[in-house]
């Protein structure tokens, strides 16, 4: 696991002829949490999407375990190790929490019903397993998506604004869960407007021009 | 050797330089060909024994139709190059060639229907070739509309490339089905474009005109591409130098 | 592999049954369009019979097209497509299952409704088998081709459905010609097997190539 380090090399992103960021380089070891920070429009979401492999970068490369993740077997390997939760939580309103979760897991690795119920219990949705998600509040829907973090699986998380719509208790639990995950050797890249200053051991990456 | 050439082609600056050197030659060649072809075809070529002088419209109609089809092939080729090798210039070519192709299709349709009046006695006949041309025009419109609808340039480039490739796979199927539909509904029509034996005095000027149209197409495409390259690279230093020199 | 296909099929099934409107609306549209024609051209049975196959095919084409507009939209908007793209499973396979499910729902319902509407357009019973089989094969091609357009236009707000029609309708022409050709042959009592084989060929071709284009289109739309 320690050999599998993530190297981001001179990454640049341009959208509609506007440069969002350039020459972004960092490396991420097992056990590290990186918060991508910056003002609105600095390219935080774009960086995360490029990192996940959803969007092409204008320049630069990303290596995982010494292989580029942008093509070929490196990409395959990267996807098997990755969990990405974006702005849109990929929760279908017509399906129940359990159905949603079981399908999202099946996309990588199918898991059993008990495991899913347990994960839903851990995000505070016990008793809501069979409720269609359209009847849940925004915060509860976010929790359905976040329940994926409580399932066994990928050692790398990329989370775009995971704290949105969560109540204070939810934020606290999630912070603790992320740190526990890192302590067990996981890696997390996340964006949030919520301050993580009080959490020890979170690296920060500032995007956006210094004015 | 051939590969370095290929990679150089990806560099806008190199393209701008080489196309600038090519332009005068291309202009002279296509104007010359056009003049020769027009005079030869419209004045010296013999009259058709059935259609009289009205057949002379083929010297516009046929080259435009040929170009309309090969331009679509070019779109698809540019699309493949752009998608596989991520060459930006291929996208510029695709974007600039689509309107020219649409115009050529339009010209072929208009001349075809003008030609139809003396031959069929009506401006529009659901002839297999004209119908296929009309469908080709719609395919061009689709590509242009898709490009205009997507605001992000890179996304638009890839989407139009995919659409062009899908279109090119479908064109033969569409063409054969329309031909077949035509024979089904109007057996043994008189198809003017399929003259079995055209004498050399008639088809030689046609050949010159086809070459002239290709030359004009290349000229038009290069001019459009140069403009687009300057627009896209307006931040680059070499573009600024060129603009300062010419100002 | 087999498991993911089954699970996806199950998910699509659940989604379809919880929103039956999406399933029925194209069908109602199909019926309404066909009703418009007798009102427009008059109810003489000879005229209607002459035009019936064309009317039914054009209506089926438009109904399929309209139903495809929303095929990927909700998955795009709620972020599901991002997860599909990132999944280690091949995206071509996932979209193929999704499109085939759409065809089984929409195409099959159209096929079931078509004979009833055919009767109203004075088509004789003898051509109904041809009508059903050509529609069944044809709608498969229509779904697969249309899904390419749906994938490319899914990210566009507002004008997406009009653009989808613009992109895809020209590609539908061969299916229309073959389908109506088969119907005309059947009406004249000629053999139709050749048409069916051609339609089958088109369906196989679309089945093997379209998923690649659909997946490419979705990747492009998601990457914006």
Automatic annotation (TrEMBL), chain A:
Q: For the ABC transporter domain, which residue ranges apply?
A: 6-210
- What SMART domains does the annotation carry? AAA (SM00382)
Sorted keywords for this record are:
ATP-binding, Cytochrome c-type biogenesis, Membrane, Nucleotide-binding, Translocase, Transport
In the record, biological process GO terms are: cytochrome complex assembly
Which PROSITE patterns did the record assign? Answer: ABC_TRANSPORTER_1, ABC_TRANSPORTER_2
One GO MF term on file is: transmembrane transporter activity
Output this protein's name: ABC transporter domain-containing protein
Question: Which species is listed as the source?
Answer: marine sediment metagenome
TrEMBL record, chain B:
- State the membrane topology: Multi-pass membrane protein
- Pfam families documented for this protein: Cytochrom_C_asm (PF01578)
| Family matches, as InterPro entries | Cyt_c_assembly, Cyt_c_biogenesis_CcmC, Cyt_c_biogenesis_CcsA/CcmC
Task: Using the UniProt record, give the first listed, main subcellular location.
Answer: membrane
User: What is an annotated GO biological process for this record, any one?
Assistant: cytochrome complex assembly
Q: Where are the transmembrane segments?
A: 22-45, 57-85, 92-116, 128-150, 162-182, 202-223
Q: Where is the Cytochrome c assembly protein domain?
A: 15-185
Claim: Membrane is one of the keywords in the record = yes
Molecular function in Gene Ontology: heme binding; heme transmembrane transporter activity
Q: Name one GO cellular component term.
A: plasma membrane
- Compartment(s): Membrane
Q: Which UniProt keywords apply?
A: Cytochrome c-type biogenesis, Membrane, Transmembrane, Transmembrane helix
Q: Which NCBIfam families match?
A: ccmC
As for family, the record states: Belongs to the CcmC/CycZ/HelC family.
For this protein, the record's PANTHER family field holds: CYTOCHROME B_B6 PROTEIN-RELATED (PTHR30071:SF1), HEME EXPORTER PROTEIN C (PTHR30071)
* Name of the protein: Cytochrome c assembly protein domain-containing protein
Q: Which organism is it from?
A: marine sediment metagenome
TrEMBL record, chain C:
Q: How does it sit in the membrane?
A: Multi-pass membrane protein
Keyword annotations from UniProtKB, A to Z: Cell inner membrane, Cell membrane, Cytochrome c-type biogenesis, Membrane, Transmembrane, Transmembrane helix, Transport
One Pfam family, please name it: CcmB
The question of whether ATP-binding is a record keyword is answered with: no
Q: Which intervals of the chain form a coiled coil?
A: none
Say where the protein is mainly found.
membrane
Q: Name one GO biological process term.
A: cytochrome complex assembly
GO MF term set: heme transmembrane transporter activity
Q: Which GO terms describe its cellular component?
A: plasma membrane
Query: Does the entry feature the keyword Translocase, yes or no?
Result: no
Question: Which segments cross the bilayer?
Answer: 23-42, 54-72, 108-127, 133-156, 163-183, 195-218
What does the record give as the function of this protein?
Answer: Required for the export of heme to the periplasm for the biogenesis of c-type cytochromes.
Family named by the database record? Belongs to the CcmB/CycW/HelB family.
What this protein is called in its record is Heme exporter protein B
The organism of origin for this protein: marine sediment metagenome
């Amino acid at each position: 696991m320690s050999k599998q380090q993530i190297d981001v090399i001179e990454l640049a992103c341009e959208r509609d002829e506007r440069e969002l960021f350039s020459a972004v380089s960092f490396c991420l070891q097992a056990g590290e949490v990186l918060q991508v920070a910056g003002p609105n429009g600095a390219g935080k979401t774009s960086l995360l999407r490029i990192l996940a492999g959803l969007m092409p970068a204008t320049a630069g490369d990303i290596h995982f375990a010494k292989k580029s993740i942008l093509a070929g077997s490196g990409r395959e390997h990267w996807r098997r190790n990755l969990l990405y939760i974006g702005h849109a939580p990929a929760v279908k309103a017509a399906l129940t929490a359990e159905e949603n979760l079981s399908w999202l897991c099946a996309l990588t690795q199918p898991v059993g019903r008990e495991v899913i119920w347990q994960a839903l219990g851990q995000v505070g949705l016990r008793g809501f397993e069979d409720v269609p998600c359209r009847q849940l509040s925004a915060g509860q829907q976010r929790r359905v998506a976040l329940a994926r973090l409580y399932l066994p699986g990928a050692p790398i998380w990329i989370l775009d604004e995971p704290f949105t719509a969560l109540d204070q208790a939810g934020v606290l639990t999630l912070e603790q869960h992320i740190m526990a995950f890192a302590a067990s050797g996981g890696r997390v890249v996340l964006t949030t407007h919520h301050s993580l200053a009080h959490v020890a051991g979170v690296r920060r990456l500032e995007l956006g021009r210094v004015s | 050797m051939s590969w370095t050439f290929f990679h150089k082609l990806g560099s806008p600056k190199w393209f701008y330089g080489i196309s600038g050197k090519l332009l005068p030659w291309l202009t002279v060649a296509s104007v010359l060909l056009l003049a020769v072809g027009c005079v030869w075809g419209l004045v010296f070529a013999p009259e058709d024994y059935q259609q009289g002088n009205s057949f002379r419209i083929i010297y516009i109609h046929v080259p435009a139709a040929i170009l309309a089809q090969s331009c679509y092939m070019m779109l698809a080729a540019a699309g493949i190059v752009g998608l596989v090798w991520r060459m930006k210039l291929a996208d510029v070519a695709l974007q600039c060639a689509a309107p020219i192709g649409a115009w050529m299709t339009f010209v072929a349709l208009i001349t075809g229907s003008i030609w139809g009046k003396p031959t069929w006695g009506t401006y529009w006949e659901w002839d297999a070739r004209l119908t296929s041309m009309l469908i080709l025009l719609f395919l061009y419109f689709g590509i242009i509309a898709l490009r205009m609808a997507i605001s992000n340039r890179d996304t638009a480039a890839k989407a139009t490339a995919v659409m062009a490739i899908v279109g090119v796979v479908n064109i033969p199927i569409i063409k054969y089905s329309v031909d077949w539909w035509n024979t089904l509904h109007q057996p043994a029509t008189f198809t003017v474009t399929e003259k079995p034996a055209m004498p050399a005095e008639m088809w030689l000027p046609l050949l010159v005109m086809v070459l002239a149209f290709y030359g004009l197409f290349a000229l038009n495409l290069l001019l459009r591409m140069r403009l687009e390259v300057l627009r896209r690279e307006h931040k680059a230093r070499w573009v600024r130098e060129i603009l300062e020199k010419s100002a | 592999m087999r498991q993911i296909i089954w699970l996806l099929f199950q998910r699509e099934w659940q989604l379809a049954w919880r929103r039956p409107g999406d399933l029925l609306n194209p069908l109602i549209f199909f019926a309404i369009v066909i009703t418009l024609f007798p009102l427009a051209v008059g109810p003489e049975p000879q005229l209607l019979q002459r035009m019936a196959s064309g009317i039914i095919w054009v209506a089926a084409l438009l109904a399929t097209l309209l139903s495809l507009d929303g095929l990927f939209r909700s998955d795009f908007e709620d972020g599901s497509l991002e997860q599909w793209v990132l999944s280690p499973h091949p995206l071509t396979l996932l979209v193929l299952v999704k499109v085939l499910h759409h065809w089984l729902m929409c195409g099959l319902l159209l096929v079931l409704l078509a004979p009833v509407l055919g009767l109203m357009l004075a088509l004789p019973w003898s051509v109904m088998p041809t009508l059903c089989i050509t529609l069944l094969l044809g709608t498969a091609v229509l779904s697969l081709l249309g899904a390419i357009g749906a994938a490319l236009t899914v990210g566009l707000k507002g004008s997406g459905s009009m653009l989808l029609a613009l992109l895809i309708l020209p590609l539908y022409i061969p299916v229309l010609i073959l389908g109506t050709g088969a119907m005309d042959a059947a009406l004249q009592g000629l053999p139709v097997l050749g048409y069916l084989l051609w339609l089958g060929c088109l369906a196989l071709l679309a089945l093997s190539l379209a998923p690649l284009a659909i997946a490419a289109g979705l990747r492009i739309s998601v990457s914006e």
